[in-house]
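ESCALATION

Customer reports they have been waiting on this structure for their group meeting. Please prioritize. Original submission:
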Amino acid sequence: MPQLEAREVPLHKVFCSDYDFRIPDYQRPYAWETEQAEQLLTDLEEALSRGTDEPYFLGSVVLVKDSGAAEAEVIDGQQRLTTLTILLAVLRDLADNPDVVNDLTALIAEPGSTVLGLQAKPRLTLRPRDADFFRRHIQTPGSTAGLMGLNPHTLKTDSQRALQANANALHTTLAGWTDTQRLALCRVLSVQTFLVVVSTPDLDSAHRIFSVMNSRGLDLSPADIFKARVIGEIDDDASEIYAARWEDAEEALGRNDFSDLFQHIRMVFARERARQELLKEFQTQVLSHYQQGRAKEFVDEVLVPYAEAFATIRDQRYQAGAGSETVNHWFRRLLQLDNSDWWPAALWALRHHGGDPRWLGEYFGSLERLAASMFIRRVYTTPRVQRFAELLKELTNGMGLRAPSFQLTGDERAETLRRLDGDVYHETKTRRYILLRLNELVSEDGVVTTYHAPRITVEHVLPQFPRFGSRWATDFTLTERHEWTHRLANLVLLSDRKNAQAQNFDFAVKKEKYLKRGVVTFPLTTQVLGHSTWNPQDLERRQTELLGLLAKEWRL
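Update from on-call: job pushed to the front of the queue and completed.
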């Protein structure tokens, strides 16, 4: 049986000569997005603001490593180690104090020692295709300034673009801090921030550990523990009845959604971002209101109604007379977003106004406008959650549809429009949502259609790479192609991806052989079929029309 070691290690002992971290080539590339990097910095800032010696745990890493040897193959933890290195590099390059620069440089790279027989080298080596880029643009002192000036479209891999984007995001925030604040963060990082380092000399053993640590299994969840506490407070005569009600709610939602429900209920009650694990906060922020004989009330007034509201939203099956289908349309739109932060506000509305479809229709229209704007502007988790928390405070204070948090500022409206008018195709998270919303707006009846195609793709009319000698080269200059290729006016929805050769046909042929072959007819795509030409003037008119529809829909 291979020897297993697991211990809590402060970061100054993680980034030291005890470890020579290497990412094996078979691992997936670095992929953290700016939202995750910014969230990491926000969490560290909160740990700093608490002003205590309380340790901050960043999670775990799993290594293949012989005891006593520095070489460590990273099986799990690449994203954290890489992002921490970026953060240290940004702090290093913003520091004025030479001692701080030297200390941070030593955390990022082994300086070497003739006496100890240590070779100078980076603490972390990425996969071969990104290792040199990471060394030159992150790990080398003073290099992050040059990295931020590179054109992301010229970088060779998505991993390199992610490295640049996260360095940019962290630098933007930290450049606004004082030297004293940044030094305090460096100290929190080095001394109070810990990783749980799990190591074994055997690769198979490391993979088994990783699988166990990341498997869902059927271990006790917070919901199971809350159930024991609540049902345990109910007298014997009624406990079986209430246990059945609890289990019915869990069965209706499924184990995963049922667990998520408790996060949303906590937010409805606390109206603030979570700062500790759910086990602690749910007890203090929710269950504490239902002590001293009120356990039944929690099940009847909180758990069951909110579980029913969750299922109604998830399954889009709201029924309360005239206007119900409009409410379900809003659910379908919201469910296409890439986050669940809007859920508590949605659950609150169904719980308190579930019998008024007209009110709900207006409410969810405002909620989708707010959520869509933040989605399009790529507002990251903390400010997004804080906005919904403020909305919940206003709602509980009786402001209803007039809640100030529903309103977009002038800058927010302008930024939403700017992004909609930009190269939408490159915004891979948002482009499909935007085009599906547009698809509704250009349809004659404005119906929200649920498409059942196995795959809906976003495609170009003017191709990204026109064939040499094609009509596209005659109708568009190189500058015009750069201006229009990736913008809204040139994008359509198809129900399946066609082959690249078909994409490059001239416009007349492309309409017949490519755009018409979709299994599903999208009104947005059908519009293009009605054009006899496709040139910069056509695109200018179409861009104005489409932007106008979105600006009107979202009151921008």
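Sent to customer with the following note: The two ends are 64 Å apart (CA to CA).
Escalation resolved.
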